[in-house]
Protein 1
Amino acid sequence: MDEFSNASRTALHLLAEMHPDLIEIVLLSLRVSLSAVVLAALLALPLGAFVALKPFPGRRGIVILMNALMSLPPVVVGLVIYLLLSRTGPFGVTGLLFTPAAMIIAQCVLVFPIIAALTRQTVFDLHEEYDEYLRSLGAGTWQKITTLLWDGRARLLTGILAGFGRAIAEVGAVIIVGGNIVHSTRVMTTTIALETSKGDLGMALGLGIILVLIAVVVNTAVVTIGGSASRRTL
Amino acid sequence: MRLQHDMLPLVVSHVSYRVDGKAIIEEVSFAINDPGLTVLLGPNGAGKSSLLKLCHGLLPPSSGSIRWGDADARTARQKQAMVFQRPVLLRRSAAENIDHALKLRGASAAERAGVIEESLAWAGLGDVANMPARKLSGGEQQSLTIARAWALNPEVLLLDEPTANLDPSATRRVENLIRSFAATGRKIIMATHNIAQARRLADEVLFMNHGRLLEHAPAERFMGGPSNPLAARFIAGELVE
């Protein structure tokens, strides 16, 4: 109990004084996870919509794969990206291993299936409803996609924020491809793991509090945006 | 000013439509030559909605052909607008719903602004322009879909049971819009199972049952005494299956 109260005191002290190391770690975490989510969304939104709208051979298999990849184990993703980016791997020449870029790629791979699967389902459901109206107006595939994505924006934003939640809380993949290098690739989750193993529980708990606060903010945003969109449009 | 039609006559020739071997429309042939309001009348399951969708190009006929004047299929669709039984409204405001349809039909921003205001005013929806479309009442929602169709300035309006889910007051409102639409000389083809509505609105009637066209006659003659015995029973209020 003493250990917990000491750690809490240290954590609150670090938070109160906005310790530079802590701020650096938080900012890097946000930069990596936000970049990963934006990149994943840019790829997953059109792809998910395309899979929902366009029949093609093997589409059912792709849908099953997209859903299955939502529970992709982060350490496996980390390992595969590590092998691809390592010096002897096919993308070794890029020199990305143990950089924030590698961490962005890893988180992007983890978040992409979540956004793509949710987009596919959202667009599919809306398309069932809008199909005859859109065909009646002679809408092309791209016009259909933009219409359906815009009208599904509340659900899609919820999915994107859920993806951000997964990215920011992820530790297994980023520790493998980032290496947890101080002032370079050390993010909140990897620091918590490291500091806990070293017994420096104050820093770990301080970062833990920030992570929980971010989770609360993200969930509040999900509820607020979802509720507000429902009131305005549904 | 009345429209000069290049979409008429509508010639439907030996059209059948089957789903999994089951005939939904069976060997239907007719021609519509005049503007005004043609009603597809018949009980539920007669094939009225399917025939409308075939005419609009939303369903491909299994056999036979459909021609709108000299227009090719693409041009024909662009000169038509269709209103569905259940209003299909985007998750946007009333004005944005009309804006979206105009955009898809290639109208410029400058054109759209004027037309949106005009069409909402025409439908008596000016004061709900910025309301979420799906929050409007049933009658307002269907009025909005008709206003959206009106904004497209079609030569032909296809209406699939537009008042099936509405109360009498909302039905009156929608029927007034349909009359106003018809008064501009546009061709209107409307599916309904409501005999009283057909009596109020129709210039000519196509009576259908079980996917077959049983009678095609001017409304006055049809309502005065149809030649088809089943149609006679239907307008007498009997439950026709």
Protein 2
Amino acid sequence: MHEKKASIALENLRICHNCDLAQSIPTLAGRVVVRCRRCHSVIEKHQDNALERSFILAVTGLIFFIISNLYPLISIKKAGLTVDATLLSSSIELYRIDRPLLALLVLLTTIIVPLFSLMGIIYIFVIIKLKHYSNFTAPFFRFLRRNEIWGMLEVFLLALFVAGVKLADSADVILGISLYSFLALVLVLAWLSATIEPNKIWEATHPVKAEN
Amino acid sequence: MKQNITGKSLGLVSCLHCEQISQLPNDYHGEKVCCPRCQARLHSRIPNSLDKTTAFILTAALMYVPANIFPIMNIVYLGEAKSDTIIGGVLHLLEGGMWPMALIVFVASILVPVLKLIVMSILIISVHLKAHWRPAGRTHLFLITEFMGRWSMVDIFVLAILIALVQFGNLASVDAGLGAFSYAVVVIFTILAARSFDPRLIWDVIEEPQVGDHD
């Protein structure tokens, strides 16, 4: 991956979100990241077939997400008893001990938002391929992009390891089968967020030219 | 030759959500204008960005105190009740000789929230003071802070996993403490603070001497 510096011209105008500098970007091919001339933050990235790649990664992620929810992620054994934890049980148990707000927070960040993001990307791809746009398509994708940050599965993965280490002294910790699929899911999600090019989707869903 | 033409000086605004560049009406004075592509409200700068960020940061800073004083979890083990604060959790890992894990948890649950509160405060103050000091550096500091914030959620998740796992009745059980809720509020509010901060404010004062037009 190489980097290009943007320059000033009127075609392909971009305005940096982080410093408001107006600049034009070159026509992109291959795998490129364009950075702002002034504050050096990323203003555009390009990869061939980004849309198709994102779709495939989202489907892969969805499959791993389903598998991750089917079996225990981690189990402990103590005095002949075994207790399993799944992705969903972390929220359910919080609810059961009367911590509804914390339960809701965990449910949102580990289940609802990640699932919504994956299904949303698949939905958008299908819409674009079928050219089935409506006035709802672009606001839907905006909502999806805006709330993606509340999906925190990679942080949950770290928490699984921390919890395992904490319990290793006092009980037998057994790694569940779903843990491997969960690990794969986190990697796929990271790959997906590096691949997805919102601009491609925006241009496809609702092509509007600048008015000047 | 300097060619620092901003979107604002051209009367153009780039939608923060879909990147669509639109022209604001000539007589624009803060009324509602929507993005032609994604229908989001368009703003040259996020409205009341500094006030909102300050409010979120102050709330987070206030809640940081109970988050650290009160236990994040109550543990019953072999009939004996124990409480663990956030710092206590790190120390227990360290005592158990798990220093790499202790370091990770220390960074995520203590260093990141504190740095986030400090960095956001510095950014707010520097914008208030119209500082010209290293704008690109401050922008990067902001982007890094925004990215790091989510990792502080690790403590809430560890708590949720422990509660789900340690269910052996009187032998051993874990319950959420008072600190857990406050800590969750700190994490959420620092994320909201980063979201309402507009880094373009850092650059506006850099423009002023050259452009010198109305606000």
